[in-house]
Design goal:
It contains seven helices and no strands. By secondary structure, the protein is mainly α. The termini are far apart.
């Protein structure tokens, strides 16, 4: 009879241990998924940052009197490269997107620039990267949502707090990105 109780207790302990391992592994998986999706965004941001010097050099040759517009893009790019953390990165990348929108709007004033094949290629490439970044941000936020839900549900919340897991930060679009940019700036 005692052996049955001992075996029963051992089965319960083994089952609880197995269950805790499953919870732990699940938390590790969702945490790593959040980090992976952020790295996917980071790769696209790097590609966009790599394209910008080419675009700026080309624009500079045509837009001699638009130095302020070019400076905004250069400063926004530098700020985005130095940004740390999700919220600061979102804010600075939003500023860069806005500066690029302004650059493309000003480029409308320069038909020779718009007609230049390299400009069209770079503009298309940067626009494609912007779309891919937007898609990855959505996927990132979905990964963060799954992770944060896991951290908040029982029994995962107990294991997560014991391991020191903290909720991940969503990628919030800055208000400046939500504003409509003019399609074309008026020529003075």
């Amino acid at each position: 009879m005692v052996w049955l109780v001992v075996i029963g207790v051992m089965v319960i302990i083994a089952g609880a241990g197995f269950y805790l391992v499953q919870v732990y592994n699940g938390l590790v998986f969702v945490k790593q998924n959040v980090q992976k999706t952020w790295m996917n965004i980071d790769v696209l941001l790097k590609q966009r940052h790599d394209e910008l010097p080419k675009l700026l050099d080309l624009c500079n040759a045509y837009m001699k009197f638009e130095q302020e517009t070019l400076q905004k893009v250069i400063q926004a790019r530098a700020s985005a490269i130095q940004a740390q953390g999700v919220s600061e990165r979102a804010r600075s990348e939003g500023g860069l997107s806005q500066a690029l929108g302004g650059l493309f709007a000003v480029a409308e004033r320069y038909p020779e620039l718009k007609a230049h094949g390299t400009f069209q290629t770079l503009q298309t490439r940067v626009s494609q990267l912007e779309n891919q970044i937007a898609d990855r941000r959505e996927f990132y936020n979905e990964s963060v949502n799954i992770y944060n839900i896991r951290l908040g549900t029982i029994p995962d919340t107990f294991v997560a707090s014991w391991l020191g897991y903290q909720p991940a930060e969503y990628y919030h679009v800055p208000d400046t990105d939500k504003a409509d940019l003019p399609l074309r700036l008026q020529t003075p």
